[in-house]
Amino acid sequence: MGISIAVLAAVLLFVAILVWVKSTLSGQERFSATGESLRRDGEFESGCPAEFVKQIFAKKDLDYVSGLGSAHLEKFFQQERKSVALFWVQQTSAQIRQIIRTHLQASRGSQDLELATEAGILLRYGGLQFLCGVLFFTITLAGPQGLQELAARADAWAQRIREAQLGFHAAKETGRVRGV
Question: Residue 33, by phi and psi: left (phi above 0), alpha (psi -120 to 50) or beta?
Answer without folding.
Answer: alpha
